[in-house]
């Protein structure tokens, strides 16, 4: 059995816990008998049990930013606003130029938030990072986890930092959001990038080569993203 929240399917048990997290009272019929026994979900459980980015977005919305901050106490380590220009199609099929400010924020969550336990064995949990951004068409906020070491290496080829390094001083929000986009076109071979929500279209230059799948760099994101909606 599934529960539908914002047109997205969730496992029944997780769905019930999300509803209990969001609402004080029973939101619809059928849950009255078990409502008092449902345990609200935690941010830690969301990150472990939900891999789908849309499910995570909805779950985080149910939990609410205030509860997330209370639970994991994320630290803002960087914020960057980019001035963008794009074109939208109007009601009469005319092109409308739209200028807007797009802000990205990079947060750090200390590893000890997750606690010591069997998931980590003898290892101390590492600090983790997420980038917060907005969907330019709906204004919905997204939290996307990023691999700090991979973000660093993407923008600093052939360099490596130890897991104990302070990545909050080594990576920035634009590098993090660029890292979330992958392509098999070799660096230098992209002509332009167009983004429609989660759909990213990449046009390669004539005769450009393909190779292994890689992440975009900060330089590519700032220079080659020409349209977004």
Summarize the model shown.
Helices cover 26% and strands 34% of the residues. The protein contains seven helices and eleven strands.
Describe the structure.
- The chain is globular.
- By secondary structure, the protein is an alpha+beta fold.
- The strands form four sheets. The protein has a four-stranded antiparallel β-sheet. A three-stranded mixed β-sheet has the order 9-8-11.
- 26% of the residues lie in helices and 34% in strands.
- A hairpin with a 2-residue loop joins β8 and β9.
- Mean pLDDT is 86; it is low at 116-120.
- It contains seven helices and eleven strands.
- α1 (12-22) runs parallel beside α3 (53-63) and α6 crosses α7.
- The protein has a domain at 1-71.
């Amino acid at each position: 059995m599934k529960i539908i929240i914002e047109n997205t399917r969730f496992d029944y048990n997780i769905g019930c816990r999300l509803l209990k997290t969001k609402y004080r009272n029973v939101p619809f019929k059928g849950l009255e008998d078990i409502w008092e026994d449902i345990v609200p979900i935690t941010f830690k459980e969301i990150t472990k049990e939900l891999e789908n980015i849309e499910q995570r977005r909805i779950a985080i919305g149910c939990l609410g930013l205030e509860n997330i901050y209370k639970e994991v106490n994320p630290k803002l380590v960087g914020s960057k606003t980019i001035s963008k220009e794009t074109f939208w199609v109007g009601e009469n099929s005319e092109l409308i130029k739209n200028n807007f400010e797009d802000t990205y924020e990079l947060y750090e969550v200390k590893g000890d938030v997750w606690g010591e336990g069997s998931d980590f064995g003898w290892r101390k949990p590492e600090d983790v990072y997420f980038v917060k951004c907005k969907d330019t068409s709906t204004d919905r906020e997204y939290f996307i986890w990023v691999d700090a070491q991979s973000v660093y290496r993407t923008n600093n080829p052939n360099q490596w930092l130890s897991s104990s390094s302070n990545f909050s001083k080594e990576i920035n929000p634009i590098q993090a959001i660029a890292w979330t986009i992958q392509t098999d076109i070799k660096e230098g071979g992209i002509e332009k990038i167009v983004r429609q929500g989660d759909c990213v279209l990449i046009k390669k230059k004539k005769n450009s080569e393909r190779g292994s799948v890689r992440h975009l760099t900060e330089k590519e994101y700032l220079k080659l993203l020409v349209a977004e909606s």
